[in-house]
């Protein structure tokens, strides 16, 4: 029991002191994929986008952050950014964007559902709107994989009932 308590106390101190960053460190342009993987682990997905590669670091169902690292043709980092933002969602075009476009812009969703009435597949993203508000974005695709609707609102998963 003492070992568990001591380990928990050390972990808590590391988090409070800022030694553990759950929001990933920003990597400098020029970093290699090996350096990134050594720093934050294996990506949750790897996408080819023209002559570049995107490394996705999604946080999953409970996560409100997804980071993407773009590697240039030389295999070195060009950019590193948090992609679950209003600005990124604004890049999606209703009636034009495909599922593949969405993956390249904001990565994989935290959850997948279906709306049988409209025959929509829904991809749901939990995120911090404007970096502050616990929000959820629902992207609805038709059976051809074309984005047909986008809806955002308060993320009740994080609400305390008020």
Provide a short characterization of the protein structure.
By secondary structure, the chain is of the alpha+beta class.
- Spatial ordering of strands, largest sheet: 1-2-3-4
- State the low-pLDDT regions, or none: 1-22
Note the main sheet: 4 strands, antiparallel
Shape: globular
Number of helices: 4
Task: Tell me the number of strands.
Answer: 8
Distance between the termini: 37 Å
Mean model confidence by pLDDT:
86
- Cα-atom radius of gyration: 18 Å
String of helices and strands: HHEEEEHHEEEE
**What percent of the residues sit in helical stretches (DSSP H or I)?**
10-25%
Strand content bin: 25-35%
Structural class: alpha+beta
